[in-house]
Amino acid sequence: MKEDKKKLLAKIAYMYYEQELTQAQIAKELAIYRTTVSRMLSQAKKQGIVEIKINYFDASLFELEEKFKQTFGLTAVELIPTENDANEEAKEEQLAEAASAWIRRQLTDEMVIGLSWGASVGRAINKIDAKQLSNVSVVPVVGGPSHINSRYHVNTLVYELARKLNGTSLFVNATVIQETKELAEGIFHSKYFHDLKEYWKRLDFVIVGIGGPLSYHKSQWRDLLSAADYEELKLREAVGDCCCRFYDAYGKRLNGALNQRTIGLTLEELANVPQSVGIARGISKARSIAPLLEKGYLKTLITDQETAQEILRVHQRK
């Protein structure tokens, strides 16, 4: 390239990036077309005359997000960088901060929003800043926990999010696991449950947590399972749960007696929601998260870097 051309490219770049003139102003001053200015700015970057450095962002994290999105066909992925010296509590707080900010940006007027529950979802909901929206409804998509394990009761989360969005809320008055199939069917077909089922048909956005393997001890509801339930899940090689529905390593829903006693959205219904968002992290949960992504039950995942890398390893081993 001739020196005079390089000089012109450098001058245009200086005027645009340093003097902060618009492309139209540069075109007028140099007596050239605005489209020529745009083309020459692109050329200046290609020739190395302009080098753009983006601070406060790890390019490798962006690349991982894109790879993750393409691998699982997701609508969106939000990854949090993993800090090696951070403890588990700090990692959970970082996840909640990122999840709350991402979710808040997506919420708009007229939405019907569904909530599951658990520690990750609860932390995120608690951190969401208020946003004045119109005609928003927030509803539970699962029954509640037992009375001894109700820190993140779904009704509490539903009320809290609706309050922050200036919306209305609907509550569920049943535990997620019933003693018998007949009791569950009676609740599901009752008059009081009818309104909730109608909202489930109109869901626009659902936020869910993801339960880890059976050995995972942080679950807020598994005290409702009987010894026979655990034995059945072990025999059928359950790897996790979402909306309190268990599945195996290939994402196959386990349609046993436990599933028939469960009050909640099915995985197939979850997959049909326009935007289904999972919030979860932890190496031990990677085997539980991967099947949900592979089967298309979730359209968005909010997690951290180390978890995403482990999920990809689990997927590649299959």
UniProtKB/TrEMBL annotation:
Molecular function GO terms recorded: carbohydrate binding; DNA binding
Domain of life according to the entry: Bacteria
Keyword terms, alphabetized: DNA-binding, Transcription, Transcription regulation
Keyword Transcription appears in the UniProt entry: yes
Domain Sugar-binding: 61-313
Pfam family name, one: Sugar-bind
InterPro entries: NagB/RpiA_transferase-like, SorC_transcr_regulators, Sugar-bd_dom_put
Family: Belongs to the SorC transcriptional regulatory family.
Protein name per UniProt: Sugar-binding transcriptional regulator
Organism per entry: Enterococcus raffinosus
Top-level taxonomy: Bacteria, Bacillati, Bacillota, Bacilli, Lactobacillales
